[in-house]
Design a protein that fits this description.
Helix content: 40-55%
Low-confidence stretches: none
Strand content: 5-15%
Oligomer: single chain
Protein name: Zinc ribbon domain-containing protein
Distance between the termini: 26 Å
Keywords: Membrane, Transmembrane, Transmembrane helix
Length: about 140
């Protein structure tokens, strides 16, 4: 049992501050841990990142960690998700010019629907990502 130096109250062995007065019991964390994926800093008792689930490494404060928040594969997926429907619209216009109306109309309609769905999902994911960034706790 730890005894509070301020109010002499008994506290559990794992407590870092007094439950009664809030005074610090003994030494504060000698080191902290950092998530190498997302860059969040945690106390030394933490083992896994709350945000991404990655393992934490010891953080000494002097090392400048460079966290890669840009994933190039995601960029390519956005480009392809826009490029294919645009190709569908162009092909639909070509088929309409050849007087193949059914195929041309179906290509254009499908492409427009895919672009609208992509835009709605992008807005949804951006709003979810910004909301999760606002709720992120940095220790």
């Amino acid at each position: 049992m730890k005894i509070c130096p301020k109010c002499n109250e008994l506290n559990g062995e794992n407590r870092t501050e007094c439950w009664k007065c809030g005074a610090i019991l003994g030494p504060v964390d000698k080191y902290k841990k950092v998530c190498l994926r997302c860059g969040l800093i945690y106390p030394q008792k933490a083992e896994i990142c709350d945000k991404c689930g990655g393992r934490l490494s010891v953080y000494d404060g002097s090392t400048n960690y460079k966290f890669s928040r840009n994933d190039s594969s995601g960029c390519w997926l956005y480009i392809i998700a826009i490029l294919f429907p645009l190709i569908g619209i162009i092909l639909g216009c070509v088929y309409l010019a050849r007087r193949e109306d059914e195929l041309g109309k179906s290509l254009i309609i499908t492409s427009v629907v895919v672009i609208v769905i992509f835009a709605l999902l992008s807005l949804l994911f951006v709003s979810c990502a910004s909301a999760s960034l606002l709720n992120t706790k940095i220790y």
